[in-house]
From TrEMBL:
It comes from Azospirillum himalayense. PROSITE patterns: ABC_TRANSPORTER_1, ABC_TRANSPORTER_2. Residues 1-26 have a biased composition (Low complexity). The lineage of its organism: Bacteria, Pseudomonadati, Pseudomonadota, Alphaproteobacteria, Rhodospirillales. It holds the Pfam family ABC_tran. Coiled coil: none annotated. SUPFAM superfamilies: P-loop containing nucleoside triphosphate hydrolases. This is ABC transporter ATP-binding protein. The keyword ATP-binding applies.
Length: 269
């Protein structure tokens, strides 16, 4: 988390508990509402988002889907409070929540052990109270707690990143393509693990993906983004309980969505 990139300015990292050990936020486990209104977002004068509006109820799992470059990461970055340079409003319906963040790459500190990577996001008083170990155990990572990240497989490193995000007991979990570039069986195991973790530690979730199947499998509601400049073009509520969404149902819903006349859906194919 200490490696800044152009779209994740280091100066604003204190907003994300998973990125910053000293962040406190609201009481742990306090699921929050999320209301984000981006009237306009520009990079160097170029407007990339216009009139994007989204709202999540406490505990709701929202998936943002859309074609590459349409502004999903930008919207998530704004929701995380990491980019305040936009015209609009961000509101949690109460105090700022504890944030958990999971990115496209695990972003572990290579010079710290797995255990330390998780413990470091916790308030000082909780760094040696067994919390890190409990979350590592929940992810099946006890055996590598004292290893350095360089010794882990890609899937294990992602599990550490998930453990780190859940260890803070986030009220709001922000995930940016967290399972991209994993082989499909590993990605499926990670999605199942995410579902289990959310049952254990419920949070409001904003999940960015370009993978429509993944969104159908996980989300309570899918927001389909349309480019140029980006806005939410359509919303798809998913009523079937997550546990009952097998491959056949996911494929059926996907086919139905891709057949819709709205061009925003065709861009997802
Ligand atoms: N720091 C930046 N400076 C200038 N332009 C940027 C910056 N960050 C993003 N952009 C531009 O804003 C647009 C939206 O980018 P963003 O990364 O949010 O899209 P995305 O939908 O998440 O893409 P992908 O699915 O490929 O990750 C793109 O045109 C991108 O080039």
């Amino acid at each position: 988390m200490r490696t800044p990139s152009p779209s994740w300015p280091s100066s604003n990292f204190s907003s994300c508990a998973s990125c910053n050990p000293s962040s406190s936020g609201s009481p742990a486990g306090g699921r929050c509402a999320l209301r984000l209104e981006i009237r306009s977002k520009r990079f160097a004068g170029r407007e990339v988002i216009r009139g994007l509006s989204l709202a999540a109820a406490p505990g709701e799992f929202l998936a943002l889907v859309g074609p590459s470059g349409c502004g999903k990461t930008t919207a998530l970055t704004i929701a995380a409070g990491l980019d305040r340079d936009f015209d609009g409003t961000l509101d949690f319906g109460g105090p700022e929540p504890v944030l958990g963040c999971v990115f496209q790459t695990p972003r572990l500190l290579p010079w710290r052990t797995v255990r330390q990577n998780v413990a470091l996001v916790l308030p000082k008083a909780r760094r040696s109270d067994g919390t890190a170990e409990r979350w590592l155990a929940a992810m099946g990572l006890e055996a590598v707690a004292d290893e350095f990240p360089g010794r882990l497989s890609g899937g294990m490193a992602r599990r550490v990143a998930l453990a780190r995000a859940f260890a803070v007991e986030p009220g709001l979990l922000l995930m940016d393509e967290p399972f991209v570039s994993l082989d499909e069986p590993t990605a499926q195991r990670m999605r199942a693990l995410l579902t289990t973790m959310l049952e254990r530690s419920p949070a409001t979730v904003l999940f960015v993906t370009h993978n429509l199947r993944e969104a159908i499998q996980l989300a309570d509601r899918i927001l389909v983004m349309a480019p140029g400049p980006t806005r939410v073009a359509a919303e798809v509520p998913l009523k079937t309980p997550r546990a009952l969404r097998d491959d056949a149902l996911v494929e059926r819903v996907r086919a139905e969505l891709l057949a819709r006349p709205d061009p925003a859906f065709r861009l997802l194919a």
